[in-house]
Amino acid sequence: MTRDYSKFLPPEMRRGHSDQNDPPLKRLGWQPYFAQQTSVDELADTPPVRIVEVHRNALHVIGDDIDELIPPLSDATVGDWVLLNREQAQTSRVLERKSIIQRRAPGSDRQIQLIAANIDTAFIVSSFNQDFNVARLERYIALALDADITPVIILTKADLTDTPQDYLDQARAISDLITVVALDARGDEPREKLAEWCKPGQTVAFLGSSGVGKSTLTNALIGNQLIETQAIREDDAKGRHTTSTRQLHGIPEGCMVLDTPGMRELQLTDAISGIGDLFSDIRDFANQCRFRDCQHETEPGCAVLSALERGDIDTARLKRWRKLIAEEAFNSANLAQRRKKDKEFGKMIRLNKTKKPGKY
Ligand SMILES: Nc1nc2c(ncn2[C@@H]2O[C@H](COP(=O)(O)OP(=O)(O)OP(=O)(O)O)[C@@H](O)[C@H]2O)c(=O)[nH]1
Ligand SMILES: [Zn+2]
């Protein structure tokens, strides 16, 4: 007998024009990776649920025949799979993640904040206007790669540009391994063009600056206007901040989509391997430098500088790589290290004022 679990799914999944034969857990993003971490007995005692929303004092979890609020779990975030202990929810086990996006909190202790877990594909969104910036795309791509998430570049507002080819060429030049999709985020295009990544069992997220069309894209996938979007301001071509909740939505195709505010403040933290993956050619040269700690500035035997001279590395690309590496090192350092780095880089802000007697 097949039970109808649809009433336990988020509203946007209930309408479903999709293949309803997909098991509810699969439609929530359950994959063999998670199943392998548990056993039939354990699953029977503690059913798997996915955190679809984080409230201040509760987690909204959904599973097969389950849709409820449970008390917060330390070290759990939206997208996590949890084996729910119904007697003692606090002891529920968070399953090992396939991927995790995190950031350093602002402030002095700069703790790691978990942003979202178990995302398969990150759509890195930029628009065909002033927002377009190769360095920014690379930064998001490095973050995605580092988090073990497949990046896909999406260029929105294709309807508003007369020169799409320029931007497309630049975006495609970033990496042979990354697909670039151009579209109008409004209407049916996103569903058609993003279908390849939005299959049952998959979880996708949109990253990018404010106003590039993330909410519009999410709405296009969800199939209705659940998320508020705001008209773009004409003066600076930047949308105002409109997204207020971080939430996982089910979409009719059976895939989950995460809507993520705050991604704008995402810093490059501990993303060194992601940067290396994106700039693998430069990394390979850097590995051949004579000195392990080569800064690729003036050192003898620097393979990066030699490659630059031969024209094997593009100057602008090398500059962007250096900047990302420096940003990553700075963000990943703890406070004491940061102070030291501040000094090293001569960035420590010194008050040049001479103390006036009697003033202190
Ligand atoms: N013409 C056109 N307008 C678009 C397109 N994509 C988004 N817009 C408009 O751009 C504005 C901003 O879009 P949003 O979807 O709110 O942008 P966002 O990235 O979610 O912004 P935040 O929520 O601030 O992060 C809205 O008025 C959208 O209708 C597009 O492809 N073409
Ligand atoms: Zn070097």
Automatic annotation (TrEMBL):
SUPFAM superfamilies given in the database record: P-loop containing nucleoside triphosphate hydrolases (SSF52540)
Q: How is the cofactor bound?
A: Binds 1 zinc ion per subunit.
UniProt biased composition (Basic and acidic residues): 1-20
Give the residues the record marks as binding GTP.
Answer: 156-159, 208-216
Annotated region Disordered: the residues are 1-25
NCBIfam families hit by this protein:
ribosome small subunit-dependent GTPase A
State what this protein does. One of several proteins that assist in the late maturation steps of the functional core of the 30S ribosomal subunit. Helps release RbfA from mature subunits. May play a role in the assembly of ribosomal proteins into the subunit. Circularly permuted GTPase that catalyzes slow GTP hydrolysis, GTPase activity is stimulated by the 30S ribosomal subunit.
Q: What is this protein called?
A: Small ribosomal subunit biogenesis GTPase RsgA
